Amino acid sequence: MKPLLPLILFLSSLSFADLSKAASPPAADAMPLIVIDPGHGGADLGATGVTGIFEKDVVLDFARSLKKRLEMLGTSRVVLTRDRDIFLSLEDRVRFAKKQNASIFLSIHADTITAATDIRGVTVYTGDDRPSDAEAARVAEAENRADAGLTAPESKIDTSVNDILGDLMLRETRAHSILLAQELASRIADVVQLNRNPVRAAGFRVLRAPDIPSVLIEIGYLSSKSDIDLLTSADWRDRTAERLAAGISEFMTRTRANSAKSTPKVKP
Ligand SMILES: [Zn+2]
């Protein structure tokens, strides 16, 4: 571990904001960019609900509500990976966020579980090669299969981390992602039914950007008629989106404040 020490010291002197800034020219518009990723689309329908509704449509509606609420706060710019019914591979989504130099990446999904139609609620996931529990592993496996057979194998990209610097960056980013997930779960706790263990982690391919705090929100279960009633209600979407937007804004303010505190550091 000895040769790693100078690198670790160097990295610990950098905040996430420093790392993302280093990769891009100074933007004319200084507001941070949030990328919202409605899961699935086009030939990839996602889960099918007990009423016949498709996940790809439910999550697009929700993503639009969240974008609107975030824009109303006026503290960030927001783009969607897709704003219509088109197919995007999981790698395309990560590549898009990296290209846009996103400050936060939020992937929106809706789960389904055939074994139990009474399971309901919202779960916020972060990326981790070691799943927090068997249920998280199941969800990640299902979501990772989303574009199987619909995308060419060679479209796989460099989201894997293959050097020490990248590995350390990924670890720091994942720590941020967990903070974001906890903030979001606590914000929505009184307006939605949360899964009994609402913050979990697993190896989602779409959460592999090494330098962008990323979470995947399963906004409910399409196997539950009660959840479908909520997810298709404009009122529920708006109330939930409002809370999530407030949580995202709070997270950004806090991480910026922390990075400002640690700014006067000497770089090698
Ligand atoms: Zn999904």
Walk me through this protein's architecture:
The chain is about 45% helix and about 15% strand. The protein has a single domain, classed as Aminopeptidase, CATH 3.40.630. It has a 6-stranded mixed sheet, with helices on both faces. It has about 270 residues and is of the alpha/beta class. The protein is globular and about 50 Å long. The chain binds zinc ion. Zinc ion (ZN) binds next to loops.
Short descriptors:
268 residues; Aminopeptidase; six-stranded mixed beta sheet; 6 strands; 43% helix; globular; binds zinc ion
What structural category arises from helix and sheet content?
Answer: alpha/beta
Oligomer: single chain
Task: Please outline the major beta sheet.
Answer: 6 strands, mixed
Q: Shape, please?
A: globular
CATH superfamily: Zn-dependent exopeptidases
* Count of β-strands: 6
What is the third-level CATH name, the topology? Aminopeptidase
Helical stretch tally: 8
Unreliable residue runs:
7-11, 14-23, 264-268
Q: What is the CA-CA span between the terminal residues? A: 20 Å
Approximately what portion of the residues adopt beta-strand conformation? 15-25%
- What's the number of structural domains? 1
List of distinct ligands in this structure: zinc ion
Strand order of the largest sheet: 2-1-3-6-4-5
Instruction: Output the helix-strand order.
Output: HHEHEHEEHHEEHH
Helical amount? 40-55%
The CATH class, by name, is Alpha Beta
Output the radius of gyration: 18 Å
Briefly summarize what is shown.
With 268 residues, the protein is an alpha/beta fold. The chain is built from 8 helices and 6 strands. Strands 2-1-3-6-4-5 form a 6-stranded mixed β-sheet, sandwiched between helices.
